[in-house]
Amino acid sequence: MALASSGTMSIGGTTTDRSINLELGRSATATSSMGETDLRTLAGVASGAISMDDFYGASASLWTTGISTGSTTSGSTTYTGYGTVSGTSFGSTTDATCDLYTPFIGSDPSWEFYSAGTGNTFFRILDSEASPIGNAGWTTLKIYNGTDNTGTLLATKTRTSLTYSSPNPGLRMWDLGGSYSLASASRYLLFS
To answer: 3-state DSSP call for residue 85?
Structure first.
């Protein structure tokens, strides 16, 4: 989410588009300083004077999306989360195209977030040609229970610490190292 483009703004507070701490993924009551690196980066002010006005419209994320998980069974394996397996779609999302990658032709690539059986959840991009290519495009993924970043933070994943693979043309995927796609759950993904 982005901070509001006008009106009251504060470092703390519980209003999602008005709290700098919440935009940075911190608790509303976290101790923060206007001069610290994270706040300066968010405001786009590397040095010198910084004011609350510098935060209007700022966003700490590259892409966010919500998921209502679903499931389907193919053979003897149940897939849970959001995606398509053997032609059957399951789950739903607030944004079916992934804004982390710029296509050479056409629209943003589609994506999936699901686990097979009781295994780990995978984040999958269904396009291997959009820019940037390979194991790139984002640094951190925060997975929240609920419909926005005020829900319970379930995990913070750093892309470079995950197992990445591109098993065939048109697919790149990251093993998230745990199960985050339980059936009938709401998940909010925040990429930065």
So the answer is: strand
Element (H, E) at 41: helix 37-43
3-state helix, strand, coil in the chain (%, to 5): 10, 40, 50
Count the Cβ atoms, other than its own, within 10 Å of residue 75: 7
pLDDT at 110 over 70: yes
- Residues 22 and 161: their CA atoms lie apart, in Å, by 25
pLDDT in tens, 8-60: 999 998 988 899 988 887 888 989 988 888 888 788 788 899 999 988 888 77
**Starting from the edge strand earliest in sequence, which strands make up the sheet with 186-191, in order?**
92-93, 63-68, 186-191, 140-145, 152-158
Q: What is the 3-state secondary structure (H, E, C) of 107-171?
A: CCCEEEEEEECCCCEEEEECCCCCECCCCCCCCEEEEEECCCCCCEEEEEEEHHHCEEEEEECCE
- Dihedral of alpha carbons 61, 65, 69, 74, sign: negative
Q: Which one-letter DSSP state was computed for residue 59?
A: B
40 three-state secondary structure: helix
